[in-house]
């Protein structure tokens, strides 16, 4: 499919923006044609959000010009940009939780009758827009009660209500489940088919390949590639984003499993029923499944963060079924949680302090205390090994980007050299360049003889790393495959509840 050759909806010429110490945009040219879905890609810090905030009148450029629908534009505020037909959905939504969907959609642009807000008209308007654009949502629902995917719809409806012809979405799928993301792309495609223009800011390759017409890639504030999606590939985009060849979706050679490290039989907890599995030294066992099928609950129960109500768990032959999280750590378990903010790290503490956490009883400590010089040296070593971008070990963890925080967390947990590592979504929100590094580190950890239990929503990650793949469906482990049997189709089917073989039967053959 060739992308539309229509007139430009947006033209940015020579946009330059300098922040203290950073050239965020360096003479950027960007042309977005009417009716296309244009992906603006780049790793974290490449300058995407800055460029969009200049286009949207939120930030002033140091140099350059903006044209919208062929007209010279010099927006002093987002309301100027809106008046010119632009609309932006920000990374964090700007809705009123206590108001209804209809109230949010028409907010500050309310239909009025005799000077009063016409609520019936507002509800009607939302229904019309929702129907026209396939954005089904109940106009009377309270926004605070809606899941993230629907709140995003409300943001889009709000822009359409104000007549936006060009929609800018900044990392819209960062907060969505795969199914919600698919639904969003269906909506964006139909908006583009009606002649609206979509600028999609993202660093996710797959959705760009599936959902865009053209791609502009930024690196270090500069445009490094302009591509037609149908004529490019994930490898080419990844190489442009990172500045080097990246081997995507690499399938690592299998490990050499040794003795059983983790033995779980019939584990039951809230959300998990009678799960049985083993993980051996030198082996990565992957758990695949659609989010919400009990994977997180299983890992939390194994980490000691949720009570085990049935079954038995042993770690290195010790019964840990009812052990506390601390006892499990001391017994040889390390854990990289899915939620790196709430559970994994302390934002106010420094990078060095975060990296030292949990090390009070290791070689780093001296009589239970952590000597500052040792903590700093330990931090420097991990910052280097994992390529954590932090200006100094003393900066607070809250100053790190999501991807760098993830590297910190994984680095800290691997440094424990625990016999068993539980790791959930190790590369969610992480740049492609860094994903490869994290994968290599996990494989090296396995090859050093550690056992790894991996939960990931990315099938390519599971297939690339795991020696054995288990599938969870509705709280149960419903299938088990060896590395060579675990192709996308087989796993996809099992994840949808169509496993053809019982895990138990497969285990018996092993
Ligand atoms: N308000 C600001 N003050 C200082 N530096 C900023 C500001 N906004 C962005 N930057 C810096 O500009 C660069 C580009 O950031 P950004 O546009 O947010 O990138 P992206 O959206 O591609 O991740 C980064 O180095 C970032 O730290
Ligand atoms: Mg950004």
Name given to the CATH homologous superfamily of the largest domain? P-loop containing nucleotide triphosphate hydrolases
Which topology of the largest domain does CATH recognise?
A: Rossmann fold
Ligand names: adenosine-5'-diphosphate, magnesium ion
Count of folded domains: 3
| Helical coverage, percent range | 25-40%
**Strand element count:** 22
Order of strands in the sheet with the most strands? 6-9-10-3-11-12
End-to-end distance: 48 Å
Task: Give a short overview.
By secondary structure, this protein is of the alpha/beta class. Helices cover 34% and strands 25% of the residues.
Question: How would you describe this structure to a colleague?
Answer:
By secondary structure, this protein is α/β, with parallel strands linked by helices. The chain has three domains: 8-242, Rossmann fold (3-Layer(aba) Sandwich), CATH 3.40.50.300; 249-332 and 419-510, P-loop containing nucleotide triphosphate hydrolases (Rossmann fold), CATH 3.40.50; 343-417, no CATH class. The protein is 34% helix and 25% strand. It contains 18 helices and 22 strands. It has helices at 48-55, 78-83, 101-106, 119-133, 148-161, 178-193, 205-211, 234-242, 295-303, 325-330, 340-344, 351-356, 372-386, 402-415, 432-447, 459-465, 488-495, 503-509; strands spanning 8-19, 22-33, 37-41, 63-68, 71-73, 86-89, 112-113, 116-117, 166-170, 197-202, 214-219, 222-228, 260-269, 272-280, 283-288, 310-315, 318-319, 333-336, 420-424, 451-455, 468-473, 476-482. A hairpin with a 2-residue loop joins strand 21 (468-473) and strand 22. Helix 13 crosses helix 14 (402-415) and helix 14 (402-415) packs parallel to helix 15. The radius of gyration is 25 Å and the shape is globular. The chain starts with 7 loop residues before the first strand and ends with a helix. The protein binds adenosine-5'-diphosphate (ADP) and magnesium ion. Adenosine-5'-diphosphate (ADP) binds next to strand 2 and helix 1.
């Amino acid at each position: 499919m060739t992308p539309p050759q229509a007139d430009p909806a947006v033209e940015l010429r020579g946009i330059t923006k300098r922040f203290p110490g950073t050239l965020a945009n360096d003479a950027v040219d960007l042309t977005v044609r009417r009716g296309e879905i244009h992906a603006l890609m780049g790793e974290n810090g490449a300058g995407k959000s800055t460029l969009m905030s200049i286009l949207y009148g939120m930030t002033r450029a140091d140099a350059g010009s903006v044209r919208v629908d062929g007209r010279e534009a010099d927006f002093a505020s987002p309301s100027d940009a809106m008046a010119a037909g632009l609309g932006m959905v920000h990374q964090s939504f700007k809705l009123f939780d206590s108001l209804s969907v209809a109230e949010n959609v028409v907010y500050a642009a309310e239909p009025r009758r005799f000077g009063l807000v016409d609520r019936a008209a507002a509800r009607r308007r939302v229904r019309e827009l929702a129907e026209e654009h396939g954005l089904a949502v109940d106009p009377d629902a309270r926004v605070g009660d809606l899941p993230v995917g629907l709140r995003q719809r409300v943001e889009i409806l709000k822009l359409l209500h104000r007549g936006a012809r060009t929609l800018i979405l900044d990392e819209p799928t960062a907060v969505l489940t795969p199914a919600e993301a698919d639904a969003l792309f269906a909506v964006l495609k139909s908006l583009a088919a009606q002649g609206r223009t979509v600028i999609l800011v993202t660093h996710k390759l797959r959705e760009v390949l599936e959902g865009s017409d053209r791609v502009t890639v930024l690196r270090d504030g500069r445009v490094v590639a302009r591509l037609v999606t149908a004529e490019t590939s994930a490898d080419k985009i990844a190489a442009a984003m990172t500045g080097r060849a990246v081997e995507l979706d690499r399938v690592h050679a299998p490990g050499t499993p040794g003795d059983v490290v983790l033995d779980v039989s019939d584990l039951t907890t809230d959300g998990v029923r009678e799960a049985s599995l083993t993980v051996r030294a030198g082996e990565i066992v992957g758990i695949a499944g659609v989010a919400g099928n009990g994977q997180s609950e299983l890992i939390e129960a194994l980490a000691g963060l949720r009570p085990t109500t049935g079954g038995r768990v042993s770690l290195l032959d010790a019964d840990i079924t009812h052990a506390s999280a601390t006892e499990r750590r001391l017994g040889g378990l390390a854990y990289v949680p899915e939620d790196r903010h709430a559970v994994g790290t302390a934002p106010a503490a420094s990078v060095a302090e975060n990296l030292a956490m949990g090390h009070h009883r290791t070689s780093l400590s001296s009589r239970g205390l952590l000597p500052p010089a040792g903590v700093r040296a330990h931090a420097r070593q991990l910052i280097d090994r994992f390529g954590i971008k932090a200006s100094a070990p003393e900066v607070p963890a809250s100053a790190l980007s999501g991807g760098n925080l993830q590297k910190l967390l994984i680095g800290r947990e691997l440094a424990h050299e625990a016999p068993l590592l539980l790791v959930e979504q190790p590369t969610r929100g992480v740049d492609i360049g860094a994903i490869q590094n994290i994968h290599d580190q996990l494989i090296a950890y396995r090859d050093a003889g550690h056992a790894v239990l991996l939960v990931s929503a990315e099938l390519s990650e599971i297939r690339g790393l795991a020696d054995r793949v288990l599938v969870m469906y509705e709280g149960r482990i419903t299938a088990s495959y060896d590395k060579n049997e675990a192709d996308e189709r087989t796993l996809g089917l099992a994840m949808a509840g169509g496993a053809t073989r019982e895990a138990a039967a497969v285990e018996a053959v092993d």
